[in-house]
Specification:
The complex is a heterodimer of chains A (about 180) and B (about 1000). Chain A contains six helices and one strand, in the order ααααααβ. Chain A is an all-alpha fold and about 180 residues long. The longest helix of chain A is centred in the middle third of the chain and has 48 residues. With about 1000 residues, chain B is mainly beta. The chains are: A mainly alpha (about 180), B mainly beta (about 1000). Chains A and B meet through α6 and β1 of A and α1, β43, β46, β52 and α6 of B. Chain B: It is found in: Endoplasmic reticulum membrane.
Chain lengths: ~180, ~1000
């Protein structure tokens, strides 16, 4: 999709517009031919396009909802994978956990981009966006929960204490059996 | 996150070491370990050069070693180390094929096969009392005749067959306390004469039938002046001895049953004589030597018994035993000490002025006086006699002199090490020549290419050998500069002879050696001994321009009130910086944890009267000391009285010497053990240089236990007095072992445990918050090891994560022993197969790496055992989480894994101590084991998790990276081209 856009949009270097869509008659040098009513055509056109736009908006809203709900499937999938990986630290479980953390974070970073194609003045994207964010946050929470259950989060006293050096002693005492 | 990564990392490390062995491959032997064999100071030597085979000399030493040395190079052909209580009294060669040794105070006689050192027979000689011992192998003209060996020991005379070691006859002397001095053989009439003293004033001569031990004749005479010490036999019927006052020479003739004494005052012979004289041991015909306060006098004895001084030598002199060169002719060697060289004279026995040989030998370094000389002759090509001399020096080294040169030398002082410390090497300075680097680079690449070949299994046999040679001779490991990992260090060792050696940890070579003049005999200091050595100055701030130094502490006599000696030695150059005799005695040396501005460590020396003396003697040191004055304590363990006393310091000395550096002490507490039931046998404390990384122990389910880490703890083991002897001397009912953990600041007993039916000897090690000790369980008839772990109960409540995150805890604030922290202990016992000579524990730079116990076994090997085997939380069925934590299932005995012998196939004969030192690399620890032999190695108790292994192929890595980069470029270019093509389409 990105590639297509690039070809269509930025691929063009220059263009001449042969059609003049100006609707103001006074600005035109050439008068309209007789029997031609610009207004009626405009009206017709607008009716059709309005219909079209409505359909598109509907479609966009629908699509946006689909996109917003997509992480749910992912969530289920992740949950299953995590259950499979078990609670011991090894390469597989760590890989899954980190991907489970990474995916929602990546998705949350690109919330705007994901919903860009469905941007429309008539479509309300706020709710799907919120749902999307909520689901991804859920995924993130799942990842963190997994991280914790693997014991990799410093939530225990032991994590904070184990790096503390032993306390210094005030007194100093040495001695032993006398040297002979 | 850091925490998570760390805990993950530690977890991975733990998982990677589930099998805790330290084994190495065959080709890794000698890569980081070295082993040196020594024999100790030679007491007796007999040469065996008659046959055309390998020329050798058989020696016995003060370390109870009997060894056969190659006369050409000084290498050991074979060697046997007898036990520490099996001192060798005499050696001889019988029938030209057996070496006979008499040991254990004349009670054990052994014959060893001369070529290979195998024991041929062994006889135990029974006797009724302790006496001196005497070994006499009669000479016989017939070689293969079954000679009998005459042995006097334990008060009786035994004749032992030299073929089987059977006792042919035994004779008890009628007089009690008869001490044999000489045995004289009479070939013609098959009789022997035994002369000796009863008590100090009666002289006895026994004539005995050599065949059956029948007593033929007994003469006795008393001399009211008394006898003392050494006897010099000057002919077959005459001997010379000193009287009890050591000022008169007595010539005793005992021809034909008549005993006559003839007195000669030494002052008549030697003009300026005063004090006491000593007869130098010799067996010359008609000649003996007397050492007086001024000189050594050589006195000839005529057949009428007339004494005449033939020569006087003012230098230190040693004479050898006579060497029969031809029929009726004797020669002997005389070694005198010059300024920087020694003079060796070989003279004929009957003619003082005839010098068969006169040599002057230069010594390459200071070795002190000659202590002993043994000579041997050989026949030159022109049929004249040549002589070689084996000399034993003051520093216990052994030298062979021949033709005016030192043929070989052995540094056998290293067999009797009494103190070890380590020193850093100099920092590497810039300015290495370019050519060297280039050559090194080429060599480096070549070496690595070979290694790559080796890893890819492409190397031929000689290339494999070259790789192995390169690994062993790596110039890296024997460089004289500090390395990044801290593997290269100097081991500074103090030997019994008062000589300091610096050994390089890379290859064990002697970097320098120094016979300390301050530990040599002088007028004021008659019998000086070294006590120990301490790190005096370790420069960190001025590491580039200041050298580290060590402090050697000695004393004049082996008694508690003898005056002390201090000596300071630069460890880079091996020069004595300063030395002085002290005006007080030394019973304790306390290195304090403070240094002055020049980074000299403060030391407190406690004298016999309980006063503390501060060194270095400078105002600054006193100022530093005054600041910490009230927090310094010391304790003394009086094993004889069964008392442990704790002392504090007072601001000034009481008594005559009142100076700023002397401090009085006051007794604060004492623990008195009941003398009828407990006797102190062992005390162990933590090493002062041990670093502990954390105070918490994380147990299963992320729970925390707080270790009670204190340097002021003392482990004390006492046994009931009846059980203080050998194992088996007491019944289980009457023997018990009690162990204590004592706080040495307050005298508080933190832990006490009784092992009923157990006894010593106890060997223990104290590290972090745990103690492991080894003892004998009489009921189980087995050795046991017990671990005690001490935990701080008063900190156990610190479990609130939020508080810990915010740092609102007092876990790192200084603690005082007077706060009486509440402790709990955990303990567990296991059976152990071996008896033990020494136990120590590995030390690492930061204390993160898991610990291994190093156990010196009775077989003179060092066994490394993971601390996880000594964990009081072991249970028969550990839970899943405990297993994850690394707790091993409990077994009643400790497994001995053959691969975990640190010394692999080698033996450290006569093992006495194991010293560990941390390297800079956290995973590595340096282990030095000493006894008669020396052994050094480097261990990685948790494997080298923080560095690549030595045989890691950097070249392979480099090649892989280069290949990958090339591949990336190629594919990039290709893909660009493809893109372009696609766009044109």
């Amino acid at each position: 999709m990105d590639k297509g856009k690039a070809v269509m949009g930025s691929g063009r270097r220059w263009a001449v517009d042969f059609t003049d869509n100006s609707t103001i008659p006074s600005s035109r040098d050439i008068p309209d031919p007789p029997g031609f009513s610009r207004a009626s055509q405009d009206q017709d056109d607008s009716a059709v396009s309005k219909q079209k736009k409505d359909a598109e908006a509907n479609w966009k809203a629908q699509k946006a909802w689909e996109v917003a709900q997509a992480p749910f499937k992912n969530l289920l999938m992740m949950g299953f994978m995590m259950w499979m990986a078990g609670n011991t630290v090894h390469l597989f479980s760590i890989g899954i956990t980190f991907s489970a953390l990474w995916q929602p974070i990546g998705a949350l970073q690109g919330v705007g981009k994901v919903f860009e194609p469905y941007k429309d003045s008539k479509v309300d994207l706020l709710v799907p966006k919120l749902v999307f964010i909520a689901l991804n946050l859920g995924g993130l929470a799942l990842g963190i929960w997994k991280l914790n259950s693997l014991g990799l989060l410093p939530t225990h006293a032991s994590d904070w204490v184990s790096s503390l050096p032993p306390a210094k002693e005030v007194e100093y005492s040495v001695g032993g059996i006398p040297l002979l | 996150m850091v925490m998570a990564i760390r805990s993950l990392f530690i977890f991975v490390v733990i998982l990677s070491i589930t099998v805790p062995t330290l084994s190495l491959y065959e080709d890794q032997v000698g890569l980081m370990d070295w082993h040196q064999k020594y024999i100790g100071k030679v007491k007796h030597a007999v040469f065996q050069t008659q046959k055309t085979g390998r020329k050798r000399v058989v020696v016995s030493t003060e370390e109870n070693v009997i060894a056969s040395l190659d006369l050409r190079h000084g290498e050991i052909f074979w060697r046997h180390v007898l036990g520490p209580n099996d001192a060798i009294d005499g050696i001889a060669i019988a029938m030209t094929k057996y070496v006979i040794t008499l040991s254990s105070g004349g009670s054990i006689l052994r014959a060893w096969n001369l070529p290979d050192g195998q024991m041929v027979w062994e006889s135990f000689l029974q006797g009724t009392r302790d006496s001196n011992s005497f070994l006499f192998v009669p000479t016989s003209s017939k070689v293969d005749k079954d000679n009998t060996i005459l042995v006097f020991g334990k008060g009786s005379l035994h004749a032992v067959s030299s073929i089987h070691g059977e006792i042919v006859w035994k004779m008890d002397f009628p007089a009690e306390s008869f001490e044999v001095q000489e045995v004289i053989q009479h070939h013609d009439i098959d009789t022997i004469q035994v002369v000796g003293f009863v008590g100090s004033s009666q002289f006895d001569v026994y004539q005995i039938n050599a065949k059956n031990g029948e007593l033929l004749k007994h003469d006795s005479a008393a001399f009211e002046g008394g006898f003392s010490g050494e006897v010099s036999l000057v002919s077959s019927a005459k001997l010379v001895v000193l009287d009890a006052a050591r000022s008169t020479l007595l010539t005793i003739s005992f021809q034909n049953g008549e005993i006559s004494f003839q007195k000669t005052y030494i002052s008549d012979l030697v003009e300026d004589f005063s004090g006491m004289a000593v007869i130098l041991p010799s067996k010359l015909n008609g000649l003996f030597a007397v050492k007086t306060n001024t000189a050594s006098a050589f006195i000839s004895v005529s057949s009428e018994g007339k004494l005449e001084v033939v020569d006087k030598i003012t230098h230190a002199t040693v004479i050898s035993n006579p060497l029969p060169v031809s029929e009726g002719q004797q020669t002997f060697a005389l070694v005198q000490h010059g300024d920087n060289d020694i003079h060796l004279n070989v003279k004929q026995g009957h003619d003082w002025n005839s010098d068969l040989l006169k040599e002057k030998i230069k010594l390459d370094q200071q070795r002190g006086f000659v202590h002993k000389v043994f000579i041997n002759n050989y026949v030159r090509t022109d049929r004249s006699h040549g002589f070689r001399a084996l000399i034993v020096m003051e520093d216990h080294s052994l030298l062979l002199l021949q033709q005016g040169e030192v043929v070989w030398r052995r540094e056998d002082g290293l067999a009797s090490i009494i103190g070890v410390t380590t020193s850093e090497l100099p920092v590497e300075r810039v300015g290495v020549s370019v050519a060297k680097v280039e050559q090194n680079l080429f060599e480096w690449l070549k070496g690595h290419m070979l290694k790559v070949k080796g890893t890819l299994m492409l190397a031929s046999a000689e290339e494999v050998a070259a790789i192995q040679g390169m690994r062993l001779k790596s110039s890296e490991k024997s460089k004289m500069t500090r390395d990044h990992n801290g593997f290269r260090k100097l081991l500074i060792v103090l030997t019994k002879s008062g000589k300091l050696f610096a050994l390089h940890t890379g290859d064990g070579r002697i970097v320098w050696s120094l016979l300390l003049n301050s530990l040599r005999q002088t007028e004021t200091c008659q019998n000086p001994t070294g006590i120990n050595l301490y790190q005096w100055q370790v420069p960190h701030h001025h590491a580039m321009d200041e050298n580290p130094s060590v402090l050697v502490v000695g004393k004049c006599r082996p008694s508690s009130d003898a005056l002390g000696i201090l000596s300071f030695v630069d460890t880079y150059t091996g020069k004595e910086l300063n030395s002085f005799g002290l005006d007080h005695s030394v019973v304790q040396v306390i290195p304090l944890p403070f240094t002055d501005a020049t980074e000299q460590r403060l030391h407190l020396l406690i004298d016999a009267s309980g006063q503390a003396h501060l060194y270095p003697r400078s105002a600054e040191a006193v100022a530093v000391f005054q600041r910490e004055f009230s927090n310094i304590y010391w304790y003394s363990v009086e094993t004889n009285n069964g008392v442990i006393k704790g002392h504090g310091l007072k601001s000034n000395c009481d008594g005559e010497v009142a100076n700023n550096y002397c401090f009085g002490t006051r007794e604060i507490w004492s623990i008195v053990f009941p003398s009828e039931s407990e006797k102190i046998i062992t005390t162990v404390t933590r090493k002062s240089n041990e670093v502990v990384h954390t105070q918490a122990k994380v147990i299963a389910d992320q729970d925390v236990m707080y270790k009670y880490i204190s340097k002021n703890l003392l482990f004390v083991a006492t046994v009931s007095p009846k059980a203080s002897g050998d194992i088996g001397s007491a019944t289980p009912e009457e023997s018990q072992l009690v162990v204590y953990v004592v706080d040495t600041v307050t005298g508080r007993i933190l832990h006490r445990m009784i092992h009923h039916g157990s006894q010593g000897p106890v060997h223990a090690v104290f590290s972090e918050n745990w103690i492991v000790y080894h003892y004998f369980n009489l009921r189980a008839h087995r050795y046991e090891m017990t671990v005690i772990e001490i935990y701080d109960q008063s900190r156990a409540d610190n479990k609130d994560v939020l508080k810990l995150v915010l740092g609102k805890h007092n876990l790192t604030s200084p603690v005082s022993s007077y706060s009486r922290p509440e402790v709990t202990t955990k303990s567990q016992s296991y059976y152990f197969t071996h008896s033990v000579k020494a136990i120590t524990v590995t030390l690492t730079a930061k204390g993160i790496t898991s610990k291994h116990l190093l156990i010196g076994t009775i077989g003179d090997q060092v066994l490394a055992m993971d601390k996880r085997f000594f964990d009081p939380r072991r249970s028969v069925n550990p839970t899943q989480s405990e297993k994850e934590e690394g707790i091993l299932p409990l077994t009643d005995s400790l497994p001995i894994i053959p691969q975990s012998y640190v010394t692999h196939s080698l033996k450290v004969e006569g093992l006495r101590g194991i010293v560990t030192a941390p390297a800079k690399l956290e995973s590595a620890t340096l282990v030095f084991t000493y006894g008669v032999d020396l052994f050094f190695t480097r261990l990685a108790p948790s494997r080298t998790y923080d560095s690549l292994t030595e045989d890691f192929s950097y070249a392979l890595l480099l090649i892989t990276i280069v290949a990958l980069v090339v591949a990336i470029f190629v594919t990039w270019v290709l893909s660009e081209k493809k893109d372009l093509r696609d766009k044109w389409r």
